[in-house]
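Exam prep: given the inputs below (a chain plus magnesium ion), describe the expected output before reading on.
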Amino acid sequence: QRPNLRLLSCPGTVAKDLRRDEQPSGSVETGFEDKIPKRRFSEMQNERREQAQRTVLIHCPEKISEKKFLKYLSHFGPINNHFFYESFGLYAVVEFCQKESIGSLQNGTHTPSMAMETAIPFRSRFFNLKLKNQTSERSRIRSSNQLPPSNKQLFELLCYAESIDDQLNTLLKEFQLTEENTKLRYLTCSLIEDIAAAYFPDCIVRPFGSSVNTFGKLGCDLDMFLDLDETRNLGTHKTSGNFLMEFQVKNVPSERIATQKILSVLGECLDHFGPGCVGVQKILNARCPLVRFSHQASGFQCDLTTNNRIALTSSELLYIYGALDSRVRALVFSIRCWARAHSLTSSIPGAWITNFSLTMMVIFFLQRRSPPILPTLDSLKTLAEGNNCTFCSEFFEYFGNFAFNKNSINIRQGKEQNKPDSSPLYIQNPFETSLNISKNVSQSQLQKFVDLARESAWILQQEAIDRPSISSNQPWGLVSLLLPSATNRKSFTKKKSSKFAIETVKNLLESLKGNRTENFTKTSGK
Ligand code: GTP
Ligand code: MG
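Solution:
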């Protein structure tokens, strides 16, 4: 049978990558054609970017009449949609139907003048609304929530779920990025693009990582990629002529130094002129140099990188994997929450496992199931529909017993391979195959992961035998896994010790049997 080209016609660079590797005469039945996301990753990104360019961010007074606010704004042009949210104050995100409306709004706006300070003029799309007369209307504005639920709220919801599968799906629903949060992420990138355009007029600032790969959780950081390819490409087709553009060919000794220089000036620029950008840190000596800052109005912690196209490809790969089977995202979200609850992951860089590595481990595990739930990157094979068991405990069992000491994880081929070096955890980078994406992980962090995985598998297995009734409102299933380790360990050791106690009593009885006569004699002899 010929390879199924319907899959291969699926758009995007990852899909193209798959196509290149496909054996032309091989027999490939995928079963995944219909599941590949209908919208190309790049199409989706471009559409959202264009929306964001027609959007403004407005800091509003606490008491505001939504009706009057919209009526006033519609003087500048028709509004497509809007929402309010609370960060440090009340903010509105307003998307106009046409980009031109923003120019009219900017023209009708004055820059602040302060007695003691001087404003540096910059026409941003971030406004402050000051009302001369506070409105008397006190209707509450419905504001969209940008934060994940608290542990208490989450545990309550999870305890009332019907099964562990149901718990995984509930957790996903509560944590995944909302439409509004996604809009705010694209808008923030677009606002940063306005600032970066002061240096690089044709640049594009694209979100990547968990903001766009469908594995993002409310509150996750915003990874941004400064794409300068437009600027580079503008000159590439001009191969003849007498002029060389001095700016384009300004030389530095290496690409890394070019990246550092670009990020260095942008860091300065954001620090001095970026509205709402605070705590700017230039982290230029990292393996992947970046500028980190807080975008106060949106509340996002931002990491800006450049020359990092591979990360965009990884985001697309995860985007496709996330769409192939509805259980993928549910399991990834739960494993990420579990790892966070036990401090296996951290927001501070260090020797811990990253969320990205964890996601790769889940994908690998799903590739290794029989039948596989996910195809390998190299070849998409026929996959039967998986049964409806909870593979959460199987995930823990799988990695609780994985031979990390000799094997590496390879999602390109969907199999373990001998480790090429002695890193405790080796997960091959699917696009730069000589690199390990979890090189930073220490032996003790890996051991902690393995111990917790075993403990969690054990807890789930015990519950399968002896599950508390739903009405008892006792933590069960996922909740027991997400509770802080100490509590868990208590119940773990309690259960273990009660098992131990039974064993001890049994042994004691056995030994009593042997000594019975003696004891009996002694007692009766009293
Ligand atoms: P969050 O924890 O929700 O932010 O997940 P994330 O996937 O966004 O992870 P993070 O912010 O740490 O990294 C952003 C993106 O950079 C990831 O999605 C990957 O595409 C890429 N990335 C992160 N770490 C590595 C790595 O070690 N190697 C490679 N090649 N890419 C990485
Ligand atoms: Mg991230």
